[in-house]
Structures are given as C-alpha cells and as structure tokens.
Amino acid sequence: MLRAQPGATHIVLTRGGALSPEGDAVQADLARECTDEVVDALESMGLEHTGAITLEPLDTVISDAARQARRLAPGDPDDTVVWEELLGRTREESTLNATFLAFLTIACLLAAIGVVTDSPVTIVGAMVVGPEFGPLAALAVAIVRRERRLARRSLLALVVGFPVAMLVTAVGALAAEAAGWLSLETFDRIHQVDFIYQVGPFSLVVALLAGSAGMLALVSSKSAALVGVFISVTTVPAAGFAVVAATVGQWHVALLSVCQLGVNMIGIVSAGVLVLALHPRRRQALRRRRGARPDRVW
What we know:
The chain contains 13 helices and 2 strands. By secondary structure, it is mainly α. It has 2 domains: 8-73, no CATH class; 98-282, no CATH class. The chain has a two-stranded antiparallel sheet with strand order 1-2. It is elongated, with a radius of gyration of 23 Å. Keywords: Membrane, Transmembrane, Transmembrane helix. Pfam families: DUF389 (PF04087). The chain crosses the membrane at residues 96-117, 123-143, 155-175, 195-219, 226-248, 254-278.
C-alpha cells in the first residue's frame, strides 16, 4: 500500500525488527497531503490492534525523492487536515488536570490584577497565559467528528476549570479588599480596560475571526499564529473582571462580563466548527480537478 502511494517515500522494512509486540517494523516518510489517507488505510488493516501506528512530524528532509513525493501528493500541505494529529493535540490540551487548573487560575488572577491596576499590559499577559483555547478547539473538533468522549472531556475542563479559577480569584479579590487595595472608588477609576465588559456586535466578530485563525493554525501546524489568537479574545479577562466587579457590588458589570465570556466562547467554537467543516470539501474538490478519486488516492 505504501509503495503504491505517490506521497510516500523512503520506505524501510525491517523484518522481525519489532520485539513487543513481535513483528516487522515499517517506516516511511509521507507528504502531509496524503497522511490522512495512509492512516485510514493502516487502520482498515487493523494495525492499531496488532501493533502501532506512530506519526511524527519531520522538520527538514533533504532528498530528491521527498521533493518528488510532495509534487505527486494531491493538494497543498497547509490546506490539509491530519485528523489523528489534530485529535491528539486537542485531546491533550483539553484534559482537566492540575496543570490546566493552575494555568487558568493564574490567568484569572493576572486578569483581576490588571483590572484593579487598570493595566492593559497585565490583561494581555493574562490572555497569553490562559489555556482555555485548548478545550474550545477540542469541542469544535468533537462536534465535527462526533467524538462524544472528546466533547465530554473539553466541556468538563471548561465547566469545572472556570468556576474553580474564578473562586480562587474571588478569594484573592476579597483579600485585596480587606487589605485596602481594592474598593468601589478604585473600581470607578478603571478606564483603560473597561472594554472587557462592553459586549457588542464586534465582540462576536472578533471571537469568530480569532476562532477561525486559531483552528487554521492548529490544522496547518502554524503554532506561531496562536499567540495572536490568545491576545484577541477576552475570555479569561472577562472572567477576572466579573469576579472583581462582584466583590465590590457592581453586579451589572459582572453580568456583562459573564456575557462577554459566553459570547467569546460560543464564537470561537462556532468558527472552529466552520473551518473544519469546509476543509474536507476543498480537498475533495481539488482531487476531483486532478482526476483522482475523492475518497482514496492509494
């Protein structure tokens, strides 16, 4: 199957090279465009039950055969979704564990400090530290792939993570209020970061654009673009603002902040679903134009 795949090269067979479980070891370099089809073919052989299918990205390959494989593989690597890779990344980043809770709590605390000190720089720091995009992206993948287990995992991380982080932030805000660092007068002097709770049409537009960019960065392995996504949406800052507003009795502002949080989360997930839903159609249309079967190229 690998030898018949135009996007596969550098195929190596080591008979009896695998010891646990026993068997042959097969290795091949694949153009990204054909990786999904090869994985489907290997799974149809049941190799994940008798052995293992391991994917590892290669940063640099200098070879005429590799260049030929990239030319023969249909499509463009940046427009290709490797579903197993995407599922693995989102599954790892959407797990509710101590590390996720720690990052989310630290981000909420930073956001609260940014609100109290009226510091946009601290708010941006909270956006970058916040890990909430992982579960949101995983939820979008789960909706498209109908992966109920992944959906439950991501929803658990969001439903448990944010309340825990906000509760810890509330304790810190009350302590700051008791120490005289935070008061209603201090809250009324906030002007540079009041955009966080101002919900409007552009809140949804920014969330949709950021969610689209984030999902494109995930499916194309362009992780550098994710930093721009993190500092575009006000999910964690809205949570921190809601806590600070509630501790000083500004319930209207707290409610608006919670609405901002919800709008951003819904927008990111919706955009992620749309990007993933459109990707396979573009690939199939490209294969039809090249005269290849839309379901298999091997």
